[in-house]
């Protein structure tokens, strides 16, 4: 049995109006690999419980993990975690879980990260883990968001922090682009995956995460561009209300 | 003893006889797959059953569609915590597909176009517990949901219900499949919350 562990909110950050990063202290946390997720369990005073899975956003840094939770309208767990959960409050977590959508920090292979909306969370963990271990693997990050205010990790992802040399970020705004942007709003397409990713001949590992339709489109495009389907790893967030 | 989370009340209101522990009911149909969606043409599609002796029975799409069809209405439970009740499928019972297969094997490994695999005890595939389906809710099964045909084994977590299924091998030894090698439970009973290895 993968153990449930108490997790106390140590700090928090707002990423957008509707997404909040939770910094959790988890005594006994065994460590994780970038891309893995946890189960979170909430228990009400009357014994009612609800569980959901969330990707870990942070690098492997001891007994502290970060999750970024997007509020889903009507989502009983996400709206609690975004709007009510306060420093000092506790939930339970278990993990790390998932052994497939995981970046191997020892691998020198180039990496293409494609995130749609909150799908950027496990990709951020990969960028952070790369920095933590001093990896020189080349990363290209393609991030699709509706508008500038929807971007997570604004001061960090693409901000050229020390250790992030070799990480390139391309942001595709789908509804509204910044005024100075030469690229108008529009969906991330095969041409941009080609231009801003790596050619298939470089045999990169591709990680694609986001809502179902986004992942279907982006992973189909990568295969059409010649990438080996076995090197395209996907994680899909259900369209389901309350799924996250 | 669970830790009580201050201020959490939750929605509740689920039927504990139909929604297993740790699950919530959804009315959508979320998609979860480990990689890109394979596109399989029914003109090239085949389904095979390979016994432990190596003897193999193969059906083309036309042959498969000519078999006796059933319309199971079942509840399905994904390990990522959603459950969907009263889902309607159409396809062929594994009892039909295994009818003429001589075997003493105890295990099965389902394999898919795209390389996915999942393992199950053979006895979980028989006696009206499993189907190869081609239709969901009266419509041809969409590729992202496993079309043209997928396995459904509704009494186990839904990763056992292999999408894009191309065949089943019968084995004397249990052989872990894709998610089973990646840390998920070997059997996956949702009523016992067998989500991960060791649960």
TrEMBL record, chain A:
Stretches of the chain forming a coiled coil according to its record: none
Keyword Iron-sulfur: yes
Cofactors: FAD
Keywords assigned: 2Fe-2S, Iron, Iron-sulfur, Metal-binding
One Pfam family in the UniProt entry: FAD_binding_6
InterPro entries to which the protein is assigned, alphabetical: Cbr1-like_FAD-bd_dom, FAD-bd_FR_type, Flavoprot_Pyr_Nucl_cyt_Rdtase, FNR_nucleotide-bd, MRET, OxRdtase_FAD/NAD-bd, Riboflavin_synthase-like_b-brl
This protein's record includes keyword Iron-sulfur: yes
Domain of life per record: Bacteria
Domain FAD-binding FR-type: 2-103
Protein name as annotated: FAD-binding oxidoreductase
Automatic annotation (TrEMBL), chain B:
Record domain Oxidoreductase molybdopterin-binding: where: 35-179
UniProt feature coiled coil, ranges: none
Protein name (record): Sulfite oxidase-like oxidoreductase
Annotated signal peptide: none
Gene3D superfamilies with a match to the protein in the record: Oxidoreductase, molybdopterin-binding domain
Residue numbers spanned by region Disordered: 1-25
InterPro entries: OxRdtase_Mopterin-bd_dom (IPR000572), OxRdtase_Mopterin-bd_sf (IPR036374)
Lineage: Bacteria, Bacillati, Actinomycetota, Actinomycetes, Streptosporangiales
Organism: Nocardiopsis tropica
